[in-house]
């Protein structure tokens, strides 16, 4: 069944989640933060994800912005940083995340090939709107789908259901792309064709399902979609 619809996770897939900490570390007067920014960025991201999983399991949903703040507060404390100004700056920059360099041309190639393109993200609608505007990719996306429509975070199946409901496509017509191995694996179990963008060269997660394809970046997505 040919691919008609390419759907992307947002944070870490299209948008560089480390950009906020990296940019803050480069600002004048933040020399101490510059020494630990990479660790903080990793801690922040890990806690952000862990909190989504825990809230999905317990049924205690909140929006992604609260989870993002909770994760940052944990990371700041873990790294011995009691700096309200830094906290505010990092949160501000998170609304202005840059896209990875290959993203605009990759999405444009998919659109030129006549494919549907969309984001499917844990992010809240206003956060995603900020990221899409900042990266200037709104004109090559057909829609931005948020878990807020169903009130539970990925990898709950009801989140993946949003794609078929929006585009009227069968599961086998969807190529789902994520930088999160667990997300790509769960989407494969759901029935999507999947690509894991493994930028860090990590091992495959030990789960009942595996991503169909493993890539180092997004450059080859249009070719992959055309071959499936």
How would you describe this protein?
- The protein has 228 residues and is α/β, with parallel strands linked by helices.
- The protein folds into two domains: 141 residues, HAD superfamily/HAD-like (Rossmann fold); 76 residues, Putative phosphatase, domain 2 (DNA polymerase, domain 1, Orthogonal Bundle).
- 47% of the residues lie in helices and 12% in strands.
- The protein has ten helices and six strands, in the order E-H-H-H-H-H-H-E-H-E-H-E-H-E-E-H.
- It has a six-stranded parallel sheet with strand order 3-2-1-4-5-6, sandwiched between helices.
- Helix 1 runs antiparallel to helix 3, helix 1 crosses helix 5 and helix 3 crosses helix 4.
């Amino acid at each position: 069944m040919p691919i008609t619809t390419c759907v992307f996770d947002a944070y870490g897939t299209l948008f560089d989640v480390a950009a906020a900490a990296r940019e803050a570390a480069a600002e004048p007067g933040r020399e101490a933060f510059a020494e630990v920014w990479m660790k903080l960025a990793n801690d922040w991201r890990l806690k952000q994800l862990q909190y989504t999983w825990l809230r999905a399991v317990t049924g205690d949903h909140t929006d992604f912005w609260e989870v993002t703040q909770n994760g940052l507060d944990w990371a700041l404390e873990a790294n011995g940083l009691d700096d309200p100004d830094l906290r505010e700056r990092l949160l501000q920059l998170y609304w202005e995340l840059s896209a990875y360099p290959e993203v605009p041309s990759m999405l444009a190639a998919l659109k030129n090939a006549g494919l549907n393109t969309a984001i499917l993200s844990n992010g809240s609608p206003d956060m995603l709107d900020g990221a899409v505007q900042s990266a200037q990719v709104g004109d090559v996306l057909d829609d931005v789908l948020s878990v807020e429509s169903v009130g539970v975070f990925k990898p709950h199946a009801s989140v993946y259901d949003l794609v078929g409901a929006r585009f009227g496509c069968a599961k086998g017509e969807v190529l789902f792309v994520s930088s999160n191995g667990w997300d790509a694996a769960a989407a494969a179990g759901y029935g999507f064709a999947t690509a894991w963008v493994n930028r860090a060269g990590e091992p495959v997660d030990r789960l009942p399902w595996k991503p169909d394809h493993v890539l180092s970046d997004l450059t080859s997505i249009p070719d992959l979609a055309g071959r499936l």
